[in-house]
Structures are given as C-alpha cells and as structure tokens.
Write a structure and sequence with these properties.
Oligomer: single chain
Structural class: mainly alpha
Shape: elongated
Helix content: 25-40%
Strand content: 5-15%
Order of helices and strands: EHEHHH
Length: 96
C-alpha cells in the first residue's frame, strides 16, 4: 500500500479521528474501521505536521462519515452532545 500523502510505501495507519482514550471510550471499535484509516509512511505520520487538514477529523466529521458508511451511533462525547443541543437551540430560535 502507498502513503496517501507522498506516495511512498505506507508502513503505518493514520486514524483521521484520533485514536485517544476518550474517543475509544465513546466509540470503541469504530475508531479502527476502514473509513477512519488512511495508509501513511512513517515520515509523513511522525509529527502529523505533514498530515493535511482533510485527514484530521473532529468528532462531527467522524460521526458524519460513520453514518455515510451505515453505522448506527450512540450519543457521542459530552462535548459533542452539548454542541448539538446548542446548535438545535439556535436553529429553533432562528425559526421563531
């Protein structure tokens, strides 16, 4: 497999939505699903400095991609739930 950034041989797997303890707690095995993984070489992956922004996802982007791949999702992190409530509240106020 080739690195999606530079084209050299890929030796590592980049998680677009980070493989952190908190993300694992909220999404468990879904973090390792193929839609969230891109092949990269060690040089491009080493400091994330060469990783383009389109390959670094926030929780909202991760959830959108998971839904596109027909995964059902639980509530998500508390921060995500709060942001969703605020977004819905603003939409409701804007429609009044």
């Amino acid at each position: 497999m080739r690195c999606v950034i530079c084209g050299s041989m890929a030796t590592q797997r980049h998680h677009c939505f980070a493989n952190t303890k908190m993300n694992r707690r909220n999404y468990d095995w879904l973090i390792d699903e193929e839609f969230n993984i891109e092949p990269v070489c060690a040089d491009c992956h080493s400091s994330h400095a060469k990783i383009p922004p389109c390959l670094i996802w926030n929780e909202e982007k991760f959830r959108d991609e998971a839904l596109k791949h027909n995964y059902s999702l639980l509530a998500g992190s508390k921060v995500f739930q709060f942001k969703e409530r605020m977004r819905l509240l603003h939409e409701t106020n804007d429609n009044m």
